[in-house]
Amino acid sequence: MFAAERRQLILEMVRANGAVSLRELARVVQTSEVTVRRDVRALEAEGLLDRRHGGAVLPGGFTRESGFPQKSHLATAEKTAIADLAANFVEEGEAIVVGAGTTTQELARRLARIPGLTVVTNSLLVAQALAHANRVEVVMTGGTLRGSNYALVGSGAEQSLQGLRVSRAFLSGSGLTAERGLSTSNMLSASVDRALVQAAAEVVVLADHTKLGTDTMFQTVPTDVITRLITDEPPAHDDRAGTELQALADQGVQIAVAGASGNPGGEAVPARRQQRRDVPLPAPRRGQLPGPGAAAGLRAAAVLGEQAPGTERARVADMRRR
Known about the structure:
The protein is of the alpha/beta class. It folds into two domains: 3-61, Winged helix-like DNA-binding domain superfamily/Winged helix DNA-binding domain (Arc Repressor Mutant, subunit A, Orthogonal Bundle), CATH 1.10.10.10; 70-258, 3-Layer(aba) Sandwich (Rossmann fold), CATH 3.40.50.1360. It has helices at 3-17, 22-29, 33-45, 68-71, 76-87, 102-111, 124-129, 155-160, 187-198, 239-250, 292-307, 310-321; strands spanning 19-21, 50-51, 55-57, 95-98, 117-121, 136-140, 144-146, 151-153, 166-171, 175-177, 181-184, 200-206, 218-221, 228-232, 254-258, 276-278. α11 (292-307) runs antiparallel to α12 (310-321). It is elongated. This is DeoR family transcriptional regulator. GO terms for molecular function: DNA binding; DNA-binding transcription factor activity. Residues 3-58 form the HTH deoR-type domain.
């Protein structure tokens, strides 16, 4: 494929999706990420797109929201790994809320195997994934159907969440930065996500590395409200994603990184525990008492510690003393 053809295809993908990672662009145009990066620089010089954190976005700073058909084909391996790991933070008999999105849809497919759950959602896709789970109760919000992401939005959805209290909220979005937290491109979706957050004792954000450092119009979850981020391992060359992860950890967000393939760390883990690498947890936020999120992190670390050699047990013991 000639450079002009590659660049035209890259431009069409960015226009269709709003934001595309270099990894995905390289896969579609069937070339290396080095070549794609050079093409993206050339297109940026012409003002046709902007480079952003290991990918390309529409020019103008804020990415627009793409529809479900486009999102469902982006970063599929990463979303699967994130969903596998996120399911480990859900226990039998819990009541949780799950927001709309392709990553949360993947999570819902795994929740179907956990008995005694009550799942509150505004997503038709999440509800569909759990429709035949005999031991999971699904509670849907009211609201108006937003066809682009199959979610219920509006005042009906928000009012149905008033007075609700659950243990955790699992949310996705269009972008995540340490400065603004989770954001999305649609005002109605943002408003419902904020209502979901208000109902939960903990907030868990599911975001693959392509969303790290991406900022969109409407803030949904400020950084200081996010309990945990579950993401995938950024590519080695994506320094800015790594910097963003560290900035989030510095602000008190617990980071769990899922491997998109295999079990690279080689640790022995129980059947329902997937390999994960936790960024070293920061000190508790000033004036904050240890909450259920910290307990969950210690429980997960303890499981890994029971399976690992003495060095891992020492790390777990040190976490308990903090």
